[in-house]
Known about the structure:
InterPro entries: EcsC
Protein name: EcsC family protein
Number of domains: 1
Order of helices and strands: HHHHHHHHHH
Radius of gyration: 20 Å
Low-confidence stretches: none
Strand content: under 5%
Shape: globular
Oligomer: single chain
Largest sheet: none
Structural class: mainly alpha
Amino acid sequence: xxEQKVWEDIKHWEDQWKDYRANDFEMLYEQWMQxxxxxxxxxxxxxxxxxxxxxxxxxxxxIQGTAFQNEARERILxxxxxxxxxVEHLEDMKELSIDQLTYxxxxxxxxxxxxxxxxxxxxxxxxxxxxxxxxxxMIILNLRAVxxxxxxxxxxxxxxxxxxxxxxxxxxxxxxxxxxxxxxxxLKEELNHYSSPFIYAGEDALTDxxxxxxxxxxxxxxxxxxMFRKKMIQGLPIVSMVVGATLNYQLxxxxxxxxxxxxxxxxxxEQGEWE
Length: 275
């Protein structure tokens, strides 16, 4: 895989948005959501989304502070030394080729998909506790997957700029497909205003009514699981388990592919030969 090939793959991946047309359900949902939030007072709406943003910020920080994530950081450095023996710090990962970085990122992506699949399968058993923690767990698993991809490409995601960028990548990746192109373009624009990893001068708001389609999908999944949890096959609610595992796997695949493409794009952009 050469840099030229990766660049072409990214451009081909971007083509997915060219001919995309929202279906009737998406259009009806968007209209309903706009009407619902139009009836809210501006202050209440601002407070609601501010609290959601704060929850995402705290979740991101919590993940970064866990021993599990610190161990993952050390494993990334150890893996990097397989290709470049003098890798000591995270930024040294940028000395690896894009082929090598992509290979290492795929290791984390595969594990992330496996964790989401297993977590979705457990949720599909229909236990109220598991259903209650399903959405927070999916946020944690997918945020962590984005962080690991960023770390693999040599970016310390606990610095202010990198933290906001990784959160915006997660947010963009979980948007409805009809809105992802605009979010992708905004992310690329963010790179033009980079000055220091310790300074973030851009817009720090993340969520709005457009993002709520993802929690709605998760709610609909939970309702489906509750409907079919008593339909047993050999003593297990196979149908609801398959639904939970498949939908969680698909979401993680969507998020990790988006994050990988972005960090590949950023790597190539920093080589100075691509635009």
